[in-house]
Write a structure and sequence with these properties.
By secondary structure, this protein is an alpha/beta fold. The protein folds into four domains: about 10-130, Rossmann fold, CATH 3.40.50.2300; about 155-315, Rossmann fold (3-Layer(aba) Sandwich); about 320-400, Helicase, Ruva Protein, domain 3 (Orthogonal Bundle), CATH 1.10.8.60; about 405-470, Orthogonal Bundle (Arc Repressor Mutant, subunit A), CATH 1.10.10.60. It is about 50% helix and about 10% strand. The chain contains 19 helices and 14 strands. It has helices at about 15-30, 40-50, 65-75, 90-100, 110-140, 155-165, 180-190, 210-220, 235-240, 255-265, 290-295, 305-310, 325-340, 350-355, 365-380, 405-420, 420-445, 450-455, 460-470; strands spanning about 10, 30-35, 55, 80-85, 105, 170-175, 200-205, 245, 270, 280, 285-290, 310-315, 345-350, 385. Helix 16 (about 405-420) runs antiparallel to helix 17. The radius of gyration is 29 Å and the shape is globular.
Length: about 475
Amino acid sequence: MSETSPSRILVVDDEASIRFVLVEALEEQGHEVVEADSAEAALEALASNRFPVAFVDIRMPGISGLELLDQLRAAGSETAVVIMTAQNTFENAVEAMKRGALDYLVKPFRVAEITALAEKAVRAHALEHEVRALRREVAGRAVPGEQLVGKSPKLLEIFKTIGRVARSDVAVLITGESGTGKELVARAIHNAGPRAERPFITINAAAIPRDLLESELFGHERGAFTGAIEARRGRFRDADGGTLFLDEIGDMPIELQSKLLRVLQSGEVTSVGGQTPSQVDVRILAATHRDLDAAVSEDRFREDLLYRLRVVPLHIPPLRDRAEDIALLAEHFTARYAEALAGRPMALADATSQRLLAYDWPGNVRELENAIKRAVVLAASDVLTPDDFAFLGQAGSGPASATLSELVMAEVTRVLEEADGDEIYRRVIEQVEKPLLECVLERTGGNQIRAAALLGINRNTLRKKITELGVELPGRN
């Protein structure tokens, strides 16, 4: 019996024997299985029933499996689709995944493969359903364009935590590297809670000079210090009834931390130069990219203040640790900025997404957002290509920053450590030649005469290398 909950599964294949094997395996797991011998029959079944998962053959008379997948995605169906194929080719796999399939199953298949994919599909459907529900809850009242975007399990956990803490007034300490979106998470907590219609006030402790920070937080009376020509309420009073977000709290001067602690404990604020405290009702959210535990041990941060702020800790992982979100974020930012910055809609080429995945984004989501802005402004066409992001190689911190010679040297070093001397030349040359030929053939649409001319080699030499290296020709089914 499966570890996942039993589910209703649709099996679509024109071969009765294939359907029989699938039905037997899936029913053994406890699932309810409905059969369809064509895509047209599948559409009828989908119109009257909800199927979290569907196993669909790629080649059928009439509407193909990929065309059925397109129709489901265009209709906004939440059904997770596993494509079945008798031809385990790179093109079939890429095309299926590109069109939104969860996975693909190669015929002939074993029962273990069927059951494993069924469990994966049921879990994926449940996860997607949960993500959509949490995203609606968290971002339903967010500022247009300002929303948490992604589908990684780590981001889902953040969604869950936001949903759990939003309805209470407990303090939350949001940690993470610069650019990960700590303020966005804080706004999501505020927007999902009962204070959503009240003010959300932000103050950055690192951006305000320390001699002005106290006045910014607590306000001041007229004449309290040189230049105080009029009274000021301060951010605590501005946030009364709502939320105060203390960004970069780790940079707050130690002498000011004690006064902040008193305010958090008493709920009373006294202006600089004032005598009478006033009561405020403020929810506190704080964020930092620093290690506050280390700061406490070095006497740079008050331990009691840390405990007061970190009732619920919430850590945002860097973008390099949730690569599943990179393509979605890139599409989101492209859609968001293309019209405003370039005056026309734009899209990302498939190869561009791979280019973005190859970079480690030391500046996290903020760097990705600014990279999309730059590419959108400078792009010559409506499709953003890898060339539009060539500047990423200048960052010096990701894989994309390495030169070709550096990559070859690294590979030679690796081969030297694990191979005999007479293997080095062949192994390294093969790794360089194969992607070179594949790239040029892709550019020429598989035309070997043009590819040979671009490479500056004889066509017979090219054909020989294609065979020796196992190069896949574009467009071959």
